Amino acid sequence: MANKITIIGAGSVGATIAYTLTVKGIASEIVLIDINAQKALGEALDIRQGTPFCDPVNIYAGTYPDAKDSDIVILTSGIARKPGQTRLDLAQTNVNITKSIIPEITKYAPTAIYVIVANPVDILTYQFYKTSGLPQNQILGSGTILDTARLRARIAEYYQLAQQNVHAYVFGEHGDSSFVPWSLANISTIPIDSYKMCVKDDDRLIPPLVHDEVENYIRKSGAKIIERKGATFYAVAVSVAHICECITNAMDTTLTVSSMLEGEYGIKDVCLSTLSVIGRTGIKGRLTAPLTDDEVAQLRKSADCLKDVIKQINF
Asked: Could you give the CA distance from residue 215 to residue 307 in angstroms, rounded to a whole number?
C-alpha cells in the first residue's frame, strides 16, 4: 500500500525520522519541508542516494503544497531544548512557531493523521486540537512513547532480557511529571516485582528493581544525552517511525501517545499519554487501564501540571 508521509522540520529529529522511515520501508513517498530549504534539499538528497538498497521510496524536499494527499504529517519544527532547559520552558516559543504552520499545512493535507513530535509535545498537541479544526482522531502527539521505550530498554538491560519480553508504560506528561504505573508492568505476563522470584538460575544474582531509580533514569535520560552530545534524535526517530508503522498497518495497536482526554480517570481538556488504540484512521479509542488510587492521583497531578502551563500560553 502506498504511504505518503510529510515531515515538517528537517533538523536532526526530522531528518533522522526520514532516514528511519526509509530504512524500515514504511513510506513510499516522503516530503521534507523546512524554512531552511537548502537544509531540506541536502537531507533529502543524502537519504535518497542510499535508497537503491532499501524498499522503493521517493524522498524529496518540498513546500506545503507538496504535502497534498499525505497519509501522515509529522511535525518536528521548533526550537530545540538547550542543556539545562526543561521542555516546558520552550512552550510559548514553539507554540508561536506551530501557530504559523497549522493553517498552511492543514490547507493542503486536511485528511492526514498528524503526529506532533516537537516539544513541549503535550502542549503543542493540545494547540493542534484547539486551533486546527481537524477531527480529534487525526491528531496525536508522540507523548511518552520515547519514555516508554527508555523504560523498557532499562528494564531489559537490568534483567538481561530481550526488550520485547518487557511490557511496561510511562503515563502522563512527556516531562518531569511523568510516572510509571508499576501495577501494569510485567515481564512475559509475570508482574515486574515477582519476576526475580520466578527466575530459576542459581548462577545469577538479581538485585531488587528500585522503582524510583528507574523513573529518575527515564526522566533524566534526555537531559543527559543533550549534555553529552547536544541533542537527542535516534531513539525518538525509531519511536516515531514505530507510530507511523502502527498507523499504516492493518492491525490496531495500543501505544502511549498523547491525546485529548475526555473524562478518563476524571481528567478532561488536556492532552497527555495513557494507552490509546492506533490504526489507519488515527486514534480509534482509549483504554482505561486499571490503575491503583495512587497512580490515578499521579496522573491527575501530571494533568494539573500541564493545565498550569496551558493557562499561561497564548494560543
From this structure: 22
Question: Taking the CA of residue 48 as centre, how many other CA atoms within 13 Å lie in the half-sphere pointing to its CB?
Answer: 14
User: Cα-atom radius of gyration of the chain, to the nearest Å?
Assistant: 19
What distance in Å separates the CA atoms of residue 132 and residue 16, rounded to the nearest whole number? 26
Instruction: Select which of 167, 174, 211, 242 is catalytic.
Output: 174
In sequence order, what DSSP letters do the residues of 174-224 get, joined into one string? SSTT-B--GGG-EETTEEGGGHHHH---TT---PPP-HHHHHHHHHHHHHH
Cα–Cα distance measured from residue 208 to residue 13, given in angstroms and rounded to the nearest whole number: 36
211 is catalytic: no
Task: Report pLDDT for 88.
Answer: 63
DSSP 8-state assignment for residue 160:
T
Alpha-carbon gap, residue 315 to 310, rounded angstroms? 9
- What residues pair up with 190 in beta bridges, in sequence order? 187
Going from the first residue of the chain to its last (315 residues), give the mean pLDDT of each consecutive group of 10, the final group possibly shorter: 90 97 96 97 97 96 97 92 68 91 96 96 96 95 96 92 94 93 95 86 77 92 90 94 93 95 95 96 94 97 95 87
Distance CA 238, CA 229 (A): 18
Q: Are 176 and 219 in contact (CB under 8 A)?
A: yes
Burial label for 70, CB within 10 Å (0-12, 13-18, 19+), is buried
Nearest to 154 by CA among 177, 121, 187: 187
What residues have CB less than 8 Å from 161, skipping those under 6 apart? Answer: 155, 187
- Cβ atoms of residues 118 and 75 within 8 Å: yes
Q: What are the cell numbers at 229?
A: 552530545
Instruction: Find the length of the chain.
Output: 315
Report how far residue 37's alpha carbon sits from residue 131's, in angstroms, rounded to the nearest whole number.
26
Beta bridge partners of 30: 5, 59
